[in-house]
Amino acid sequence: MRSLLLISVVCLAAGLIILFTYCHGTTSMSAGYPLSGMSVHLDMTTTGVPALLGLPLTLGGAGLLLIAWCAAIFTRND
Fold it and tell me: What is the pTM of this model?
């Protein structure tokens, strides 16, 4: 189970690093009164090979992390 957890974290981190390293975008935040008027906007675009590698790595890492989490909860550790 430890190896599954390690692989999932490495895949998730690698996918996010690839996606955020090669992205083009902007981030904005507007603060106002009342609080319901506040907003945060994140615009991220990744194109080409980094998008083809980063997205499956991120999704696969998240899926493996979910499997490792469920295995940690439902398996016996005697």
Answer: 0.74
